[in-house]
């Protein structure tokens, strides 16, 4: 016997009640069909050969890809100023967003 028994069907009415979402009859039928497909696919995946495969949350090997943290000259301020409609004292100048009255 398997370690755990797969869920064969998800009850859309029960889930919608838990979520406090009202569904029409058409939505219930459509969502039930979609959930049945998802559960069916999970059953296919459950049959995949996994003997000797260690569980992992990642699809491949993990390694750090850090770049060195070194100071470098920056042209960002000049580039930002070139694209700004108004620029003063190294700051963007924008219109006020709240009425001051």
Explain what you see.
The protein is 38% helix and 4% strand. By secondary structure, the chain is mainly alpha-helical. The protein has a domain at 12-46. A two-stranded antiparallel sheet has the order 1-2.
Labels describing this entry:
101 residues
Summary, kept brief:
With 101 residues, the protein is mainly α. It has helices at 12-19, 25-46, 76-83; strands at residues 87-88, 91-92.
User: Measured on Cα atoms, how large is the radius of gyration?
Assistant: 28 Å
Strand order of the largest sheet: 1-2
**SS-based class:** mainly alpha
Number of helices: 3
Helical content stands at: 25-40%
Strand content: under 5%
* Overall morphology: flat
> H/E element string?
HHHEE
Average pLDDT, to the nearest integer?
83
Q: Report the uncertain regions.
A: none
The assembly state of the depicted protein chains is single chain
Q: In angstroms, what separates the terminal alpha carbons? A: 75 Å
Biggest sheet, in brief?
2 strands, antiparallel
Count the E strands: 2
